[in-house]
Amino acid sequence: MPSFGDHYSFSHGRSDHERLRMLCEIHDPYARELLLKAGLNSAHRYVEFGCGLGYVTRWASTQAANAIGTDLSTEHLEEARRLAEAAALPNVEFETANIYEHGLPPESFDYSYSRWLLVHLQRPVDAMKSIYTTLKPGGIMVCEEADLAQIYAEPPSEAYNRIREITLEAARKRGVDFTGGRKIHTWAKEAGFEVLHVGAFQPHFLTGPYKSFWSWTFLALGPAMISEGALTEAELQELAQGMRVADEDPSVLVGQSRTHQLIARKPI
What we know:
Strand order of the largest sheet: 3-2-1-4-5-10-7
Largest sheet: 7 strands, mixed
CATH superfamily: Vaccinia Virus protein VP39
Helix content: 40-55%
Mean pLDDT: 94
Number of helices: 8
Number of strands: 10
Order of helices and strands: HEHEHEEHEEHHEEHHEE
Shape: globular
Low-confidence stretches: 1-5
CATH class: Alpha Beta
Strand content: 15-25%
């Protein structure tokens, strides 16, 4: 299993594209609202770290002077470029880059954005410091990060509870923090930013395809957790069945990951 940055435990190939598309369908409206709240407009240069399939980057290119999306997955970037070409977007680019050593020109962007990236990193503050170098004085960093501890089902699902705790513990052993969303304002201050805004949202579903997003995501994490000894294949399949029961029951509410939002400014 490839490890991106520090410990990115999902598949980086085409097999994960549909899951990422669902993530974007659920979360992109919140991202767009946050970036507009932060003041993104046609006078600005925009960069996204960990852009995945580039959905937010492509949208940002319609709002900003130009946009660059960076990621370590060549497969994700290939699809992002294809989608940008299909949409005939002339002012968007995609580059392979590690957030710690991105190679981008210093002080060249007005806005940066990342989503669910820092919780996969062992050095999130260093990552924010790296973002800091790309921003002009007064530039804005916009982040959205997850807190997986808030995932739940009501009435309670033993499978959801168990896989959540197994996943959080596996992350701790890898030296990353899947509850890190609640800490992004402290990371930003440590990295030298001025915090302008914090908020959070948490989608909930009783029915529909989006309800199963986190059971799909936990299964996508399964091979990495099995290889690390966090659980066995048999245990994963047992938990998968239990989550499917909850997902298919319209009387069970699934509260998905709470996502924390941050707008921070590099001092002038």
